[in-house]
Amino acid sequence: MKTTKIFFLFIIFIIFNGMVDDDLEQIQRLEPKQRFIQTIFDLDSISSQASLNFVPWTDLNWELAKGTIADRYNDQKFRRANCWQKRKEYISQKDFRKIINAPKWLQKSRVNKLSPAEKYDLLVGDFDRTLTFALWDDVEKIHYREGVEAWMGLCEGTTAAALVFPEPKKSVFMTSARNGISIEFTPTDIKALAGLLYSDYVAGLPTIGTRCIHRDLDRDRKDCFDINPASWHVAVLSFIGKFKKPFVTDTVKNYIVQSSTILGYELIYYNPSSKQSSHRASEVMMERAKIHHDPFHSRRSPHAKYLLGVNMRAFTSVQPTYEVRGQNPALKKIGLDLIYDLEIDSFGKIIGGEWHNLDNKGPDFIWSIPNGFRSLSLADKSIDLNPQWNGERVPLEWVDSIRSASAQCQPMAIIVERLIEMSTH
Question: Does residue 17 lie within any of the structural domains?
Fold first, then answer.
């Protein structure tokens, strides 16, 4: 009898967990060591407004059409090229060895014109520019697969790096591994390498929700559904209200991606029928059976016992795109107004919801940097770093491993981290 009862409870547990929206089931991946809010009782324990005392630094978008961080932003001839094909051709025609063999009085000006990727290649003694050409080859692949557009770049990497690292403030002078050439890494160069290190080329951070890849905005497509509002609400109140930690969302609903860091929120709950409002969710949630008109009735979970309205303003920061290299623009801060409802089951657990007011602005998907996460290249994983690198010349025995990582568009974490440390102290 005892075995039968345990088996019955196990079946109930499986069924109960199957009630929850798919995004909610996955949200724990964003921060595996933390407990996210789950119930109506949790909502009442979290403040209806919160903000973080944190301002992420800004950087270039590092446009794909300019080779991302293979962009020679200090080279006027490169900047006059009007398409990615001409820019790649220009880079291909520039022989690295002309810089290496130039007299010292000319060498400095030529090195200063190099892209961040080329400076990295020079630093590690890779005169074939493996990282530089891997980035340009990827531009070409994307061109033939889906087309290269002006908005495409490393925004996800820059946004992530700004959450992980302090802002580089001063230039760092390093010495090439092979021939002792002095290389100036400006704050812009260092930010670029940090952005690449934390981009999709390396980091592979988990996301919740779906990016719509279609140019026509059709919310009925299964692959264009936004993140469920329940997952959004749980993320905002958990990260900002409970963990006191920023997270990132895409706020453009079509195929364009714009990474925005969530830094705060204010909200009010309301009764879906009477519109009575309160800062306490439990005071205004309403039994679903008593709601006479529900435009989302056919899409509700059969386990939704209560509905709760939410009117939220989320405060986001957006990495700006700007043309004047080496300058640091003010961060754009935007209030994102969202109206949605939450579905709550008979146990008080949040299990789903529906958006009410989304047009072309709203959260498509979300992601974060888990506590303790460190983005590592293939080279970092294959080289014995005991003792740690001291920031002098990169050991020549590392070069083969570095080349292999560079071919996958991956800069070495220990090099990027050392540059940031030297630039911030």
Answer: no
Residue 191's Cβ-side half-sphere holds a number of Cα atoms within 13 Å equal to: 28
**Distance (Å, rounded) from C-alpha 129 to C-alpha 108?**
18
Cβ neighbours of residue 210 closer than 8 Å, sequence gap 6 or more? 223, 224, 225, 226, 227, 364, 365
Instruction: State which of 343, 367, 391 marks the end of a domain.
Output: 367
The answer for residues whose C-beta is within 8 angstroms of residue 295's C-beta and 6 or more apart is none
Q: Are residues 276 and 174 in the same domain?
A: no
Q: For strand 306-318 and strand 49-51, is the pairing parallel, antiparallel, or unpaired? A: unpaired
**Is 346 within a domain?**
yes
Of 176-190, 269-283, 300-314, 380-394, where does mean pLDDT reach its minimum?
A: 380-394
Q: How far lies 143's CA from each of 72, 93, 148, 352, 399, in Å?
A: 20, 21, 5, 38, 30
176-218 pLDDT tens trace = 998 889 999 999 999 999 999 999 999 888 888 776 665 555 4
Q: Residue range 248-255: average pLDDT?
A: 74
| 162, 226: one domain | no
Contact (CB, 8 A) for 234 and 37: yes
What is the number of domains present in the chain? 2
Boundaries of domain holding 356: 33-54+208-367
Integer CA distances (angstroms), 275 to 272, 286, 289, 291, 320, in order: 6, 11, 16, 12, 38
Write the single-letter amino acid at 91. Answer: I
Spatial CA neighbour of 162 closest among 55, 71, 80, 316: 55
What is the per-residue pLDDT across 113-129, written as a single tens digit (0 to 9) for each? Answer: 999 999 999 999 999 99
Q: Are residues 192 and 225 in the same domain?
A: no
Task: Please check whether residues 186 and 266 belong to one and the same domain.
Answer: no
> Which pTM value belongs to this model?
0.86
In b/e form, how buried is each residue of 335-364, taking b as 16+ CB within 10 angstroms? ebebebbbbbbeebbbbbbbbbebeeebbb
Which among 352, 367, 382 is the end of a domain? 367
Q: What is the mean pLDDT of residues 139-145?
A: 90
Q: Which amino acid is at 254?
A: N
220 in the same domain as 200: no
Is residue 199 domain-shared with residue 344, that is, in the same domain?
Answer: no
Structure tokens at 18: 């199957």
From CA 215, how far away is CA 223, in angstroms rounded?
12
Helix (H, G, I), strand (E, B) or coil at 295: coil
